[in-house]
Design a protein that fits this description.
Layout: H1 7-12, E1 19-23, E2 29-33, H2 34-52, E3 59-62, H3 68-79, E4 83-86, H4 98-109, E5 113-116, H5 118-124, E6 132-134, H6 135-139, E7 155-160, E8 170-174, H7 175-188, E9 196-199, H8 206-217, E10 221-225, H9 227-232, H10 235-243, E11 248-251, H11 253-265, E12 277-280, H12 287-298, E13 307-312, E14 319-322, E15 331-334, H13 336-340, E16 354-357, E17 361-362, E18 367-371, E19 384-389, E20 416-425, E21 428-434, E22 439-441, E23 444-446, H14 448-456, E24 461-470, E25 477-483, H15 487-505, E26 511-515, H16 530-538, E27 544-547
Parallel strand pairs: 1-10, 3-4, 3-5, 5-6, 9-10, 9-11, 11-12, 12-13, 25-26
Antiparallel strand pairs: 1-2, 7-8, 13-14, 14-17, 15-16, 18-19, 19-20, 20-21, 22-23, 24-25, 26-27
Length: 552
Amino acid sequence: MTDQPSIVERLAAQPHDRPLIFLDDHLRPTSLTLGELRARAETVAGALRRRYGVGPGHRVCVLGRTSLDLITTLFGIWRAGAAVTVLPVPRAGGAAEPHDLAERRVTAAQGTVVVTDAETASALVGKVSVPVTDFPSLACNAPGTPPALPSGADTALLQFTSGTTALPRAVAVTQGQLTANSHEVFAAGGLTPHDTFVSWLPLFHDMGMILLTGAIAHGYTTCTMATQTFSARPGAWLEAIAAFRAAATVAPNFAYALAGHYLSLRRGGYDLSSLRFAVNGAEPIDADALHRFTTTALRYGMPRTAMSPSYGLAEATLAVTMGRHDETYKSVTVDRGALEEGVAQEVAPGGSGRTFVDCGTPVANTTVTITDDGGTPLPDGRIGSIRVQGPGVVDQYWTPDGSPHPVPLRDDPGRLVTGDLGFRLNGRLYVCGRQKDMIIVAGRNLYPEDFEFTTERIPGIRLGNVMAFSLRASENMIVVAETSLTGPPAQQLAHTVRETLSQELSYAPHDVVLVSPKTLPKTTSGKRQRGLCRTQYEANLLSVRASTLATR
């Protein structure tokens, strides 16, 4: 995407007095103008070049909670022509030490330097293989001769894909791809230059990074907070939308489910009428949870057309399909028996089946094709491999020596093989789930999301904390879920889950296991790690509170 401007050039074209607002844990705002952001980025770029030799072709690792200092550093790295790798903030209770996780990513990215907050810098010095500095140290240097402006073809982001652990796998996104893809998202939202965008998403996740920095570079008033602020108090997100009259926001499906529950417990107090574009992506979308949020948010003034389910992945920069701001998302309920045979056959109104949410239509210059395993296109209503072509699609996975990753990203016609299954109806994309996670039992194709979403709706199960998978040596399905219950109530809940799944989905799992809260394995961005959960189940490593198998 060499014909696209760099993110630095895009930022330079924006009004210098447009604000970038950061909210602390108490939602107290501090801000920079975009003019101040540009000036500080120049200082950071000069310091990186003089002290560490950072320039085009280098990768700078950044670690920390979202803050104005961190955001300034990102733009300083891009001003220097280098690429950013944002290191994940370790999850609470994670097995890996923070410096171990940082060192794995630093080594995989072949980073030149790590930039973090002062406290973390002190803890990392000598424990990672590259120099460590802190945000204030870079910001207080006197600016020197500015480096040459980067181009749209320069790498902006080395984005590690979800689940990357022992064998790091990353894609390299150019500055032009970042600005172009974020532009397409905001264009789908119909945003105007004076609109406000609110986000709490972590910057080590592609959706959080690309949409926050893209919003800044495109000149929208941007309001952000640390992910930890949202985690401690999900209502802070809604408060920020209402207080700053945000036109756009973005979050994964679980956050909208939490927000819907939060709104249902309140008695007024929020005005969501300004929210015209609420992007929902980054994970499978539960139609029931989304309907509950949308229905509740309407009572707080949110327009019916605001909700925008989407589909994307790091290998395509970010967005592939989007719902538009002037249309109401659609859903379709299909027959479960036909679904298992690879056909999305709509049921009559009021009939039972699995409901899918449409993820919109392709962004500009992007095509989506549903194919069989051999790459032959399938007609509407047939379930197959989702394959993508467009300017945001990367060529291959990045490796330190520049050699192609042994797993190809594209098929012979040049389409990105996403690994996801889905179907199209009337030009709109419906996503079924990951092909590798499909569970085959007695010739039936079962989707883990079906069993996870159904289990989550049972009282006593923690929302978003269910995993379904099959065992390696058999076709037996296992469902593992978190609960706060213990003793006989937990045991009764396990049997209730199994009976509910048998009745509603016509299949009873071989075992339903209930485990302690916050013990299921997830990626740093919160995605389910079903394969690791299966390994833990088989090795009896789960923190079991109840099981429907008497032998466990």
